[in-house]
Amino acid sequence: MGNTFFRWILTLCMIYSGEGCSLVLKPSRVVVGFGEPVSVSCEATRPVRVLGWESVISAAHTQQDLSVQWKVDSLIDWIEEPICYGVFFTAPRQCEEKLNLVLYKTPDSVSIRPVNHSGPMVEGNEYQLLCEVQNIAPVQYLTLRWYKGQTEVYNHSFTELTSSSPVQVSSILMVTPTKAENGAQYRCVAELELGPEGPQPPPSVTSEPLNASVHFPPTFLDPVPAVLDLTVGAEMTLNCTATGNPTPVYSWQSSNPIPEGMGDEAALTSSSLLPGTYTCTASNTLEKKSKQFIVKAKTKGV
After folding, report:
1. Between 209 and which of 13, 97, 185, 199 could a Cys-Cys bridge form, CB atoms 3.0 to 4.6 Å apart?
2. Single pTM value for the model
């Protein structure tokens, strides 16, 4: 009854709070992890009749001292808003200070996956990557950071949300991959930026990496048609090597015979090539591309 009675006294007339209230909270802002202990002192700066804490789980009051402590061994109440109140002998006779209390919880999981897509991505197409964060609080202090390799490419904050209890949130990254990004790793990092009173560095949880497999059509290392002079009896190489994913396969066509066993190789190497046009085709599941080699008989005297 004691604490309820003193609280009732405060409701009899207007309670004064804010600047000029003769109450000091030490510390004035508290950041505490879910399930961790917390202790805050409320001190009166002038003689006080009653000094106390109004709290759901750990109310306390005193009539003798100029300070009273609010203490919890394991804080797990998401709606707890402790208020220190004082009833004084002189005006202003009542005032209160609300504790700036932040109870936080790191997420149970952070995961990343493509949206409405499976398998490799294709160069030049647009895709969505989804980062999902399970059970994090308070969400308004959360920043989701997207990384490609070691480079941050996007971040998403949730300052417009106000929930104090754990929630699930997500973020989408739009990507249009190039062949240079084949094998790149994407990660999503959930970081709680709780201010100077919070843990330093800010607590964070990182997703497992998403390894990007990017398919792209064949590209010849040297796409220009090649013109080569033939020296009879000398070994000659026609190099048709191309990059691509999946790895290109090759075929050769010519009015001249193709050296045995080399019709599906990236390069023809032979000392028995004849003058003429040789066409190489490099192909994968995306596209076929061709390149010509024109072999000319070496002019006498040159």
Report:
1. 185
2. 0.79
Planar angle of CA 164, 168, 170, nearest 5 degrees: 120
- In this structure, which amino acid lies at residue 110? V
Long-range own/partner contacts, residues 55-64 (CB < 8 A, 24 or more apart): 55/80, 55/82, 55/83, 56/80, 58/82, 59/3, 60/3, 61/2, 61/3, 61/6
Answer for the pair 210, 160: CB distance below 8 angstroms, yes or no: no
> H/E element holding 113?
strand 109-114
Using DSSP bridges, classify how beta strands 288-297 and 226-230 pair: parallel, antiparallel or unpaired. Answer: parallel
Beta bridge partners of 187: 147
Angle, vertex CA 201, rays to CA 197 and CA 205, nearest 5: 115
Task: Please tell me the least confidently modeled range out of 2-6, 11-15, 49-53.
Answer: 11-15
Local confidence band at 20 (pLDDT 50, 70, 90 cut-offs): low
| Residue 51 near residue 44 (C-beta atoms within 8 A) | yes
Which backbone phi and psi does 13 adopt, to 5 degrees?
-145, 175
